[in-house]
Amino acid sequence: MHDAAQPGATLNQPVLDAEVGYVITPMTPGIRLTTGVEIGLRDSPKTPVQLAAVEPFARETFPLGERLDAQPWLGRRPCTPDMMLVIGPAPRHANLWFAFGHAHHGLTLGPSPDGSSRR
């Protein structure tokens, strides 16, 4: 969800509240409030329960203004059932490498030095 900041308020960097479970971060459309990952089927309806639960806490942390989005955003993220990355050469195709299954974390959760996140 994107919200405006109240007049005079500026957010210059992301703020993570690990105890409550949300992040607020400055984005071009406004201040984004986001929560944890919800695992659901591709065509499942939105269930913004997590967002509703954390919004009051986020508003205590930062002076959020009016909502800018009519509906919470919902996106499809590539991930594997065990949340492990698939990175490495394709077993049946020369010169093809796999690099997927990163959920919404991009390359920040790339292979660890000991190779434990590799398939």
UniProtKB/TrEMBL annotation:
Q: Which GO terms describe its molecular function?
A: oxidoreductase activity
Indicate whether Oxidoreductase appears among the record's keywords: yes
Q: Which Pfam families match?
A: DAO
* Cross-referenced InterPro entries: FAD-dep_OxRdtase (IPR006076), FAD/NAD-bd_sf (IPR036188)
| Record keywords, A-Z | Oxidoreductase
Q: Which residues form the FAD dependent oxidoreductase domain?
A: 11-111
**Stated name of the protein:** FAD dependent oxidoreductase
Naturally occurring in which organism (per UniProt):
Caballeronia temeraria
